[in-house]
């Protein structure tokens, strides 16, 4: 059958030219080199291979208290970082979750098919609710995974690139989808798979190298938009050990992390790097790494500043992402509404 003569079937199993990849990222906290090396850089490299959508999940952000102006600002900041890092608005849909109303609409339906027991078992909810106390934690925080399931299922997503911590949410997405497929027919939802990267998946904190570099721990984090001297200082002060020899040795987590960043940024093989630093000290490695980090971030920061200097253009780019993707979301929503008997 020629694809040219085929009309797209109104089911989830419609033939797709490329795997559909969807990921969401919260507009909260400053993006860091871990986000770049573990996620964004790969998204950029794979933008032709897959049919990619990256969603700035502002509806998820409001599951915990937010300052309104800061949230609005963080949403634009994140969009600008994505484009500045090389995501091409012509090939990838970068959009804001609240600009496509189908997310909230499908989330409501999924809420009605998600047992409370499943949500109660989510470790992210348990952790966050423990911090806030269940009296104060919002219902939105509890239902967070159903909204995430809606994000993913709306686009008949095949692959969801996420960190380890989100695997449980993808499993819940599959469980809800299977439950509804069993009841309404297997073509209702595509079952997505998590895509957890192995190399470069874990950049560690410079201050505490046994913990992941994270938005919530700025001391150990190399922020993508930080001034050059701030990042240089953090690298020069990075926690290492009292050893001397520069080797990829996992039992020396601080050194290993510096070397791993150097490897990812330089594209060199491990042996080559060990040779380069043979007989040299940690200070030399740190200086060389700082240069690599600064070189990588300089063009990103330049493009970022250009994008932020023209807010109308940035706004047009994210609206374009939403306009491109909204018809797909609408088609899935309609399919589900019809199956369930709404409308
Ligand atoms: P988060 O900052 O937790 O919202 O994560 C956003 C994306 O960046 C996810 O795809 C994570 O897997 C990735 N990521 C976050 N922190 C790191 C890290 N320290 N090393 C590698 N990837 C990370
Ligand atoms: N919960 C994810 C996180 O905190 C963000 C997210 C929301 C997401 N919707 C998504 C990730 C859909 C992947 C797919 O990192």
TrEMBL record:
| Top EC group | ligase
- Provide the GO biological process annotations: tryptophanyl-tRNA aminoacylation
Q: What is its main location?
A: cytoplasm
Motif annotated as 'HIGH' region, chain positions? 27-35
* Segments crossing the lipid bilayer: none
GO CC term, one of those recorded: cytosol
Keywords of this protein's UniProt record, alphabetized?
Aminoacyl-tRNA synthetase, ATP-binding, Cytoplasm, Ligase, Nucleotide-binding, Protein biosynthesis
Domain of life according to the entry: Bacteria
Binding site residues for L-tryptophan: 151
What Pfam families does this protein map onto? tRNA-synt_1b
Where does it localize? Cytoplasm
Please give the Gene Ontology molecular function terms for this protein. ATP binding; tryptophan-tRNA ligase activity
The chemistry this enzyme catalyses reads:
tRNA(Trp) + L-tryptophan + ATP = L-tryptophyl-tRNA(Trp) + AMP + diphosphate + H(+)
Q: What is its EC number?
A: 6.1.1.2
Q: Cite the InterPro entries for this sequence.
A: aa-tRNA-synth_I_CS, aa-tRNA-synth_Ic, Rossmann-like_a/b/a_fold, Trp-tRNA-ligase, Trp-tRNA-ligase_bac-type, Trp-tRNA_synthetase
Where on this chain does ATP bind?
26-28, 34-35, 163-165, 203, 212-216
Which SUPFAM superfamilies does the protein's record reference? Nucleotidylyl transferase (SSF52374)
Say which family it is in.
Answer: Belongs to the class-I aminoacyl-tRNA synthetase family.
Q: How does it assemble?
A: Homodimer.
PANTHER family referenced in this protein's UniProt entry, alphabetically: TRYPTOPHAN--TRNA LIGASE, MITOCHONDRIAL
What's this protein's function?
Answer: Catalyzes the attachment of tryptophan to tRNA(Trp).
This protein's name: Tryptophan--tRNA ligase
